[in-house]
Amino acid sequence: MTLLSFSGFGLSFRRYHGLLASCETPVLNDIAFTIGRGEVVALVGASGSGKSLIAHAAFGILPPNARMHGSICLDGQPVDERTLPALRGRRMALVPQSISHLEPLARCAKQLRWAARRAGRPTDRETLARHLEAFGLDGDAAKAFPHQLSGGMARRMMMAIATVGDADLLIADEPTSGLDDENAEIVLSKLRGLADQEKGVLLITHSLAAALPYADRVCLIRNGRMEGEEAACAFDGAGEGLRSAYARALWQALPQNGFQVAHHA
Amino acid sequence: MTRPLAQSLAVGLAYRLGRLAVVLLLVAAVAFSLAKISPIDPVNAYLGDDIARVGPEQKALIAERWGLNEAPLTQFVRWAQNILQGDLGYSMIYNAPVSEVIASRFWTSLPLVGLAWLLSGILGFALGVVAGANSGSWIDRVIRVYAYVLSCAPTFWIAILLLLAFAVFLGWAPVCCAGPIGVVPEDVTFSDRLRHLALPLAALTVFGVSQVALHTRAKMIEILNLDAALYARAQGATKLDIVLRHGLRNAALPAVTILFASLGELFGGSILAEQVFSYPGLGQATVAAGIKGDVPLLLAITLCLTLFVSVGNMIADMLYRLVDPRIRDGDLLTGGDHG
Fold first, then answer.
1. Is residue A157 part of a domain?
2. Contact state of A105 with B232 under an 8 Å Cβ cutoff
3. How far is A67 from chain B (nearest CA, A)?
4. Origin, by domain of life (chain B) (predicted)?
5. pLDDT band at residue B339, thresholds of 50, 70 and 90?
6. Chain B nearest CA to A118, separation (Å)
7. Of A120-134, B45-59, B289-303, B324-338, which range is least confident?
């Protein structure tokens, strides 16, 4: 059952040249994909390919000079300025990209409580402590300020904050950047676990190899365009099962596949 | 945390106090030199109207007695020694020891400057938060125009306008002084004091508000564009929620810092405001000492204000380290380049 769908989605930024002349710089084009319940969909693309903007567009937190076209739907209902206030935090939640998305001047426990209140969830101490425990975070971590947490703990804290609202859809923006393999594994298996509980997960990442073991489907983005959607299991062998040439080239260029660089259009 | 908070605080404080002593010494030296090279002749200033009845021989005698013929450095050292022993000298124009003049003037100025400081802080912060949270809207424009106009307008001009409007035309407030004319200070009632305080206080507050408001507004806009505020939006936070939880938290400290750092300007403003309202405070005494050549009083006030403003800046600087958790847990000494 489809939870989130992007169709014919595009994004451009309006820039001003001088006083009056303005021009639109297209950033994303022809983005279309769906996420169903129980699914992890990986959105893979290089840095600067516009992946994070897709997450921001879903939450309606793009900069003011952004122009969108196409449609974003959650459960078949359009996601727009009118419906977003009831969706943010409650129906869909964001795992932010970096620690800078947490309030530097508030203790983590407090921020977890804010997130719970914003999502209309219980905010009592016991519930929240239990929620943190599920991410291997104790009272000390809760009392810490964000800058005092280690990289792995900070990431788990952001996961805890993102999931406290028990939203159906989770969008994780580069949740493993800056993490060692062990911590990255913890985070990714947590996301997989959430999908196994009938939630939908959009995993935005630049690392195809890291995402593959946990994803059901992979959407490839290049230069702001979709370069095809593949089943995660098709990334196998020499990539015979892959539909797009770009996916095959990417797959063959991975270290374990011999760094082969295919030349294609 | 590298060191216990109390210990690093003590070290930081000692370092700052040492620096404060150096600042005071430098200001004393500069102020003394300026007084020495100024055309004020201490003997003439001392004699005042009696100058006609004193001959040059007697003047020379007084100069000799005061040690005015000695080397400037010797004079400076003697003056500094006296100050360290608590002897600030004798004020000729008020005919009282300088320490007494400053103390009594200070207590008159304190409610004025202190309340203006507090009110301009609270009002300025509130206006800045409202403007910053609604940047670009009409309310932001109104607050901004208000703040720009006021920060361009000289205090004495505002003071005169207030005086014209409320004391002369409307007659709501008294025209001058800290109490009714002809009543000894001890007999002035509290409500009378308040009535006389109102206009100078308004002038000074109106002056102080704009700076805090403009700084808070800029800070607020900056905070609302940070990742943390963006993420709060993605969590479903309302604008009010973001302003209260993220905005106030981050904007409060810079505002308090500005407030402490602006003590100097506030005193500058109070000198003019007190002059316009004939409010017998420290500011008015400063002007009188300058005009009538009361060197000991002028130098002592300079030192007192230096101490006051420096301590204000010091508090501002240390407050940051004490309150911001990102700085608090580090060393208080590192990064203390501006104090």
1. yes
2. no
3. 18
4. Bacteria
5. very low
6. 6
7. B324-338
Flag if B326 and A145 touch (Cβ within 8 Å).
yes
**Degrees, nearest 5: CA angle B13-B15-B16:** 65
What's residue B145's pLDDT? 93
Select from A150, A166, A182 the last residue of a domain.
Answer: A166
Three-state secondary-structure class, residue A17: strand
* A80 and A116 fall within a common domain: no
Task: Please state the domain count of chain A.
Answer: 2
Q: Are residues A42 and A61 in the same domain?
A: yes
CB of B222 less than 8 A from some CB of A: no
How many domains are there within chain B? 1
Residue B6 resides in a domain: no
For chain B, positions 238-257, list CB contacts with chain A under 8 A.
238, 241, 245-246, 249-250
Helices B98-133 and B190-224: angle between axes, nearest 10 degrees: 40
B136 Cα to chain A: minimum distance (Å) = 13
Looking at the structure, tell me whether residues A161 and A189 fall in a common domain.
no
Is A119 a residue whose pLDDT tops 60? yes
pLDDT tier at B331 (50, 70, 90 boundaries)? very low
Evaluated on CA atoms A232, A237, A238, A240, the torsion sign reads: negative
Answer yes or no: is B258 within a domain.
yes
Residue B95 and residue A184: Cα distance in Å, rounded? Answer: 79
Chain B residues near residue A93 by CB distance under 8 angstroms: 234-235
- Min Cα distance B252 → chain A (Å) is 11
Task: Give the CATH number for residue B157.
Answer: 1.10.3720.10
Residue B144 lies in a domain: yes
Q: The tokens of B339 are what? A: 């104090």
Q: Check whether B13 has a pLDDT greater than 90.
A: no
pLDDT digits (tens, 9 = 90+) for B61-115: 877 777 777 778 888 888 888 888 888 888 888 888 888 888 888 888 888 888 9
The per-residue pLDDT of chain B, averaged, comes to 83
CA distance A242 to A229: 9
CB contact under 8 A, B237 and A61: no
Do residues A178 and A160 both lie within one domain? Answer: no
On whether any CB of chain A is under 8 Å from the CB of B142, the answer is no
A14 and A79, same domain (yes or no)? yes
Q: Is A262 contained in some domain?
A: no
Closest CB to B235: pick one of A88, A145, A148. Answer: A88
Q: What is the DSSP letter of A260?
A: -
Within a domain: residue A79?
A: yes
- What angle in degrees, to the nearest 10, is found between the helix axes of B72-84 and B5-37? 140
Range of A106's domain? 102-166
Comparison of pLDDT for B336 and B112, the residue scoring more: B112
Q: Does A116 touch chain B (CB under 8 A)?
A: no
User: What is the per-residue pLDDT for B56?
Assistant: 80
Co-location of A71 and A158 in the same domain: no
